């Protein structure tokens, strides 16, 4: 296939519509439509589902996508080599649970981009599992290691969680001397039927009752706890930025989990590989830094 045709394909796949793709490619929608039709004829397959809402990749389009991205990455690497520049160019989408997305990744991604100004980074923060097979993200951070699908998975690092509450809540509430005392306290946690990963079922592990205040978002749970809503399980890397919170039963309750980084086995090329390495290195360093800061505070 001609690279120029694949460039058109990538523009439409990423833009989701002819009008949006045309802004970056500097081509009008009619021209793009003809080029896509020609590419589909050459490929002998329909690559996009067309609707009034835009263009969505078909299964055939999803199969072509990593190969087109690989060609794009190789072309950019060649240009960079000629220029003596090894910084990353392109765009990478990262999916992550909202806790790590809000409290760890901002610093990590900012540092990565500072060293790679031609690299675009999209951070999708959602409390659910990302479908890498359908290219919802190029890289996904998860708690449990995915077991289904054609994925490459690496363990990033361990992280820790503690019971915590606002100092004002604890000042006016019964003293917590043991896990059994938690039954007499307001509890903040996940909405039970919206826990998307078994490793996030913290309350059962610490022996707490069902939450009175609940959210599917770790960041919202932190907000509820900081507002005095009760006792909840908080990531230690979040505690570094919440000096108003006090650990509860610190000698008894400290949970350990791990972050994993996944990519689809077909999502290759030097761009994704190097971005994954930088992301892994950055997450490990930032979690360690924040947990150390929380311990000192």
From TrEMBL:
Taxonomy, superkingdom: Bacteria
Keyword DNA-binding listed: yes
Pfam families per the UniProt record, alphabetical: HTH_1 (PF00126), LysR_substrate (PF03466)
Database matches in SUPFAM superfamilies: Periplasmic binding protein-like II, Winged helix' DNA-binding domain
Residue ranges annotated for the HTH lysR-type domain, each copy included: 1-58
InterPro entries, per the entry: LTTR, LysR_HTH_N, LysR_subst-bd, WH-like_DNA-bd_sf, WH_DNA-bd_sf
GO molecular function term, any single one: DNA binding
KW GTP-binding (keyword) present: no
Record-linked PANTHER family: TRANSCRIPTIONAL REGULATOR, TRANSCRIPTIONAL REGULATORY PROTEIN
Protein name: Transcriptional regulator, LysR family
């Amino acid at each position: 296939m001609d690279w120029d045709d694949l460039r058109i394909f990538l523009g439409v796949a990423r833009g989701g519509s002819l009008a949006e793709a045309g802004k970056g490619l500097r081509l009008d929608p009619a021209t793009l439509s003809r080029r896509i039709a020609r590419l589909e004829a050459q490929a002998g397959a329909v690559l996009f589902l067309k609707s009034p809402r835009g263009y969505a990749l078909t299964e055939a389009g999803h199969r072509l996508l990593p190969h087109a991205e690989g060609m794009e990455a190789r072309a950019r690497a060649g240009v960079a080599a000629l220029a003596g520049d090894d910084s990353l160019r392109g765009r990478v989408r990262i999916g992550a649970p909202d806790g790590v997305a809000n409290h760890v990744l901002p610093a990590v991604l900012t540092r990565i981009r500072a060293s790679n100004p031609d690299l675009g980074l999209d951070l999708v923060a959602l409390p659910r599992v990302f479908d890498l097979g359908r290219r919802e993200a190029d890289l996904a951070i998860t708690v449990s290691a995915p077991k289904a699908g054609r994925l490459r998975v690496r363990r990033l690092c361990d992280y820790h969680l503690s019971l915590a509450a606002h100092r004002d809540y604890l000042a006016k509430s019964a003293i917590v001397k043991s896990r059994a005392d938690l039954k007499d306290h307001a509890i903040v946690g996940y909405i039970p039927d919206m826990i998307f990963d078994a490793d996030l079922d913290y309350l059962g592990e610490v022996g707490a009752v069902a939450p009175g205040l609940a959210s599917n978002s770790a960041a919202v749970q932190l907000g509820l706890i900081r507002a005095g809503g009760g006792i909840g399980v908080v990531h230690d890397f979040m505690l570094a930025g919440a000096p108003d919170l006090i650990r509860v039963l610190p000698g008894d309750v400290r949970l350990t989990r791990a972050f994993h980084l996944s990519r689809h086995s077909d999502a290759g090329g030097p761009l994704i590989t190097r971005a994954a390495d930088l992301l892994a290195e950055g997450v490990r360093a930032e979690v360690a830094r924040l947990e150390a800061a929380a311990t000192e505070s």
